[in-house]
Structures are given as structure tokens and as C-alpha cells.
Amino acid sequence: MRRRTRHLVLAVAAAAALAGAVGLQLRHERTALPGPLTALNAAGITEVTVRCRGCDTRRFERVDGRWWMREPYDLPADPAAVDGLLAIAATPVRTWYHEGDLDLSRLGLDPPLIELQLDAHAIRVGTTDAIDSDRYIAVGNTVARARDRFSPRLLAVAETELERHLVPQDGNPLTVSLSVAGTVHAGAAGAWAQAQALHIEKAAEGFQPPASAIEATLVLAGGTPLSYRLLRQGNAYLALRDAPALIYVLDQATLVALLPEGVALPQ
Questions:
Q1: Does 227 reside within a domain?
Q2: Beta-bridge partner residues of 177
Q3: What end-to-end distance do the CA atoms of the chain give, in Å?
Q4: pLDDT score recorded for residue 2
Q5: Which terminus has fewer CB within 10 Å in the chain: N or C?
């Protein structure tokens, strides 16, 4: 074999060996990755509860494929908000520890700052790492450290997790009557069924709408009553729900569509 050919063969063999070694290293690194926080199947979860220090407990329940908030309200929940909570179970983990190797009280895990309960599975959330700002999370007898992209979901205000339609989206027909300056008008049921708030806020304790607010009374199938008061406050268009006391902030077009023909919203 000529020297040039021999050198070429050796070079090809060396390149093949190097490629194989790199492949083995990559496979080893992939198998060594910590993986997700849990192996839970989000589609099988039927109850989600969030507890944290100094805040209201929020509890959600899946009924016939739909999510409902059960605490602190008993109203339909925004499915996207619940999906965001469920996604925390699959948070990518940087590092795993055995809880016996750590001082859980110093990490805010005993007791936990926040607890996410997915059916019978508890995810305890503690403090953040001072250097990387990773969050410490306990699952069973192990502690994980993960990039904290989920705390805003856990600390969300309950009103932001409610379904934003003014009427439950279960297909029930309804009747609507509106009292305007003492005169009762029939309301547009279709417009009310479709109306959706920009966002929902909790009404301040003791808040009373002005006497000029238009009173709307809805009756859902089965006789379930639902009451709102419609008003304009500065540049804001509001539908105030009586029970529970919530403020549905609307755009102008949505609120106008809720009014009887020929009726203008009081200024």
C-alpha cells in the first residue's frame, strides 16, 4: 500500500472513531439529563389546588371535560389558566437532590412557600437560589432546582383565572330583562351569551354602583338567576355582577350590544 493511501485510510478510520466517540458522549449526556419535574399526565388530572402563604386558596375541578374554580369562587374557570398550572408538573429540572441532604426550612420547603396539589400529588415550592435565581421544588422525597418561569402562574389573582364570558358557556338558553329608569326592556339574549370581558376584577368591599346604573336580570335554563348592573365610569365600561361581587371590564362595543335598542348608557 502506498504511503499516501495508507495515510488516507488511517485518517478516515480516525475520523470514524472520533465520530463514534462523540455520538456515545452525546447519548450519555442525553441520558444524564435530569428530565421533567414529574411524569404526571396532565390530561388525567381532575383537581388542582394552589395554596400559598398570605393568599387565598384556589381550587379547580374538572367536570365533564370543563374546568371550574371551586375556591374562592364557584364559577367556570379559564381553561388556559388551569393548563398553565398543569404545565408546571413538566417543568425541566436542572439538578436533583435528596431532601435529606438539604435544610428544607432554609429553602422555604418546610413548610413550603407555595404548594401545588394535582389530585393526590403535591409539588412544594420554596425559595430561589441566590446565584442562578433557580427555584427549589420538592416532590416526594427529592428536591429539584429549576429555572423559575412558573411563579407568576402560582401567584396569580383568582379573578384572572375565571372564564371571562358573562354567561356560562354551557349552551343554556336564557331570558334577559333590563330596568332603565324604572322601565323594563327585553334584552338581546344572543349578545349576552357571547359577551366577554377584557378582564375581571374583584369589587371593593362596600362598593355601590350609582343609582343611574342599568339593572340587568338574566334567567338561565332551569331558572338560575344572574344579575348585573351596567355603567360607564370615566373611560371604562363595566358590568357589575351582584353575586359574587365582581367587575367585568368590557369594551364599548360589547357593552352597547347588551343594551336594548334605542337605550343609551347613562353618562
A1: yes
A2: 186, 217
A3: 99
A4: 55
A5: C
Reduced to 3 states (helix: H, G, I; strand: E, B; else coil), residue 135 is strand
- Residue that the C-alpha cell 402560582 belongs to: 154
pLDDT for 224? 85
213 neighbors 231 (Cβ within 8 angstroms): yes
What residue has cell string 384556589?
A: 58
Q: How many CB atoms lie within 10 A of CB 201?
A: 14
Residue 187 lies in a domain: yes
Write out the residue range of the structural domain in which residue 186 sits. 164-258
| Residues contacting residue 35 through CB under 8 Å, at least 6 positions apart | 92, 93
The residue type found at 1 is M
> Which residue matches cell numbers 381550587?
59
pLDDT < 50 positions in the chain = 1, 7, 9-32
- Domain end point (choices 111, 142, 160): 160
Distance CA 21, CA 198 (A): 56
Count: domains in the chain? 2
Q: Which cell numbers hold the place of 126?
A: 420554596
Cell of 151: 411563579
pLDDT tens, 145-194? 999 999 999 999 999 999 999 998 887 778 999 998 889 999 989 999 99
Q: Tell which of 118, 140, 160 closes a domain.
A: 160
Residues 180 and 142 in one domain: no
Pair (63, 95) in one structural domain: yes
3-state secondary structure of 103: coil
* pLDDT tens digits for range 4-17: 555 454 444 444 44
Q: Same domain, yes or no, for 50 and 104?
A: yes
Residue position matching grid coordinates 432546582: 145
